[in-house]
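Closing statement on the thiamine diphosphate sub-project.
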Amino acid sequence: MQQWQQCDRGLIIAGPAQSHEPERYCIAVAQLAQTLDWPVLAEGLSPLRNWSDCNPYLISTYDLLLRNPQLTTQLQPQQVICLGELPTSKELRTWLSHGQPQTWIIHPTDHNLDPLHGHTLHLRLTLEDLVSQLNDESLILQGKRARITDKGAKISTFSSYIASWLTTDQNARSLINTAMQDQPQLLESKVAWLLSHALPIGTPLFIANSMPVRDVEYFWQPGTLRIQPYFNRGANGIDGTLSTALGISHQQQSSVLLTGDLALLHDTNGFLLRRHWQGHLTIIILNNNGGGIFQMLPIAGFDPPLSTYFLMPQDINFEQLAATYGISWEKVSSWTQLSESLNPLPDQGIRILEINCNCQNDTQWRTIFFRQFADVY
Ligand SMILES: Cc1ncc(C[n+]2csc(CCOP(=O)(O)OP(=O)(O)O)c2C)c(N)n1
């Protein structure tokens, strides 16, 4: 605790958290950040991004910022508190592996949650317990900190580290917002960005693997809409996507599933649940006719076998598929149409909103955007 209080360059990293009490979780994280005066990197799937008003220390663009070599040095932490699992961001994980900061993982179980095998200590307690212990000790430590200040230590360095994070994060968000606002064509990445501010308050949102969950991490804007993200992590399978979304939405507030075409096709039998299910589910299909993720991976340079064994285009007519199961289908052809279809959401039935995307264009857009981004600072 004392080490944390005296650390000039400390960072809190909040991974995905499917908390039953997201508000309580967000307030506890904010208290931790304020007590330590440390910035908080919040993954796209963390409730923190949807309770941004609780936390002035929130950073959401780290995956983009850490593509910039200058910033990776400038923002290097000495100490890290990781709340639960690490975000999956490759940029973040590579940066932590290289920098090897002293890391504490806060989680009440005995699981090893350090996939990086770094300088890590597990503190087997809940976030709430940690915050209450810190609050008990903080009065004593505030006294100590005051004495350090009297001796001439640079307290201002605390805020300069935070300021660097907050300023660069704000700039990055402006870049994202401008790029998205200026984008009239349908684009996969823009859907995640648009959902972050277009959905009704509190909407349960299931986000499928593979590109949807990545676009949420890159582009989901912090806000106050209390959207509840759901996801499948671990093996990152695409199986069971539809059934899971139906399970989440059953007898719930109107819900949304954001998915690629293959992930949906993998589980179309899930539609058979519809007779035993009540509620509303809007399924947004980003139809790029195959597994767009593979265009982003090294295998993209090898065709064959890229198309046949990885992209696997299925040329499915989703209108006909929807008709088979008696569910409604609509093709989305503009951003205005998409926004208007999402708020308000219907209150009953299953509906498909199909967005036809061009996988190569979308991959190229991301590549150029990331590259420009890395050069900006
Ligand atoms: C059960 C299962 N089979 C195969 C895979 C390998 N896999 C990962 S992502 C993916 C493609 C998903 O395609 P799509 O749903 O269209 O999303 P996109 O990649 O275009 O975002 C595949 C086949 C997997 N993760 N799980």
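The CA atoms of residues 257 and 283 lie 5 Å apart. With this model delivered, the sub-project is considered complete and its resources will be redirected to Aim 3.
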